[in-house]
Amino acid sequence: MYGKIKQDLQQNLEELKSQGLYKTERIITSSQSSQINVAGGETVLNFCANNYLGLANNPEVVKAAQDIMNDWGFGLSSVRFICGTQDIHKQLEKKVSEFLGTEDTILYVAAFDANGGVFEPLLGEDSAIISDELNHASIIDGVRLCKAQRLRYKHSDMAELGQCLQDAASATYRLIVTDGVFSMDGDLAKLPEIVALAEKYDAMVMVDDSHATGYIGKTGRGTAEHFGVLGKIDIITTTFGKAMGGGNGGCTSGRKEIIEMLRQRSRPYLFSNTLAPATVGATLKVIDMLAASSDLPEKTMANAQYFRSKMEAAGFDLVKGDTAIVPVMIYDEPLAVKFADELLKEGVYVIGFVFPVVPRGKARIRVQLSAAHTTSQIDKAVDAFIKVGKQMNII
Ligand SMILES: *Cc1c(COP(=O)(O)O)cnc(C)c1O
Hints:
- The chain has helices at 4-18, 59-72, 80-83, 87-100, 111-116, 137-144, 158-167, 191-200, 223-226, 256-265, 267-270, 277-292, 295-313, 333-345, 375-391; strands at 35-37, 43-46, 104-108, 128-132, 149-153, 174-179, 204-208, 235-239, 250-254, 325-331, 348-349, 351-353, 363-368.
- By secondary structure, the chain is an alpha/beta fold.
- The strands form three sheets. The chain has a seven-stranded mixed sheet with strand order 3-9-8-7-6-4-5, sandwiched between helices.
- A hairpin with a 5-residue loop joins strand 1 and strand 2 (43-46).
- The N and C termini lie far apart (56 Å).
């Protein structure tokens, strides 16, 4: 009977609203791009998408998705192991492996599923997973689904990671897991130190490169390329839903036997549908584009550096970093929300992040740059930040 729970849900929803924790969704009435239309009719500059390479509405990518549907249909109506594997899926797995410098790759309909299905088939209760405290929700959920011992280290604290590895010395296997790029500070995992610790304490390393694949590293191969540790990461999970065209889909890539076991045992792979051909076609295209030229990742990073330097010159307090995520610190929660609202009135769409997404008193505006932004769009955004910043006595 839908009785008591209805009232309780209504009350809980009201509480979320009164605490300022209720999420509303802004409706976009155009394709995803550096400039978008939002319901109400305004055109705004978009600085809050994960569209790092600007490929979400790229004509070549859209055409690749359309073309592949002509030959391969819309969907497979099946999981992979029953009758859902086309040769395009094998092609994409091969191409992703070449791109990431790994031995093999398994596709999932989302990186969330890749992370949800990676731990349980590999690690039992005699093993230990050692996880950065700021890892993505899907890693946390994936770890919960497996029986291994869990240890958590303070964000990027290598001394604590070393301690956790010592504490897990008696475990059969140890796996260190980290985001490659952390989404709230836009900082990179300390992969060289992590790899060295893994070697010292006989552990495997897993990196979730969802916010990195496509634009971090000289040719966009991600954090392992950035740090020169390609081939040293045992497991990489990543998404095709951010820089790589922004549709959806993800994968786990890495050591051959690991991927082979995931095909046998990983539940989101075994019990969820095949990646749709359109996504496969678009992702194949994006990888070809990146193999042919590094112009796009270079543009993304150049745009991020340009925005950073102008904002620093204007006196804003930024979290330092080497990614296209640029957090502008406001600290005060209501002020950050108001700041983002005022920027929208100036035609700049960004989001204020407040507790509990970031620590209390560390509210910020997260700005994300894309290869699609023009210099004049970035200039306009900086001008808007300066205008609102002065109005609100932040600079
Ligand atoms: C976005 C993100 C995911 C989820 O990716 P989907 O493919 O959209 O499920 C997983 N991990 C990290 C670190 C992410 O940033």
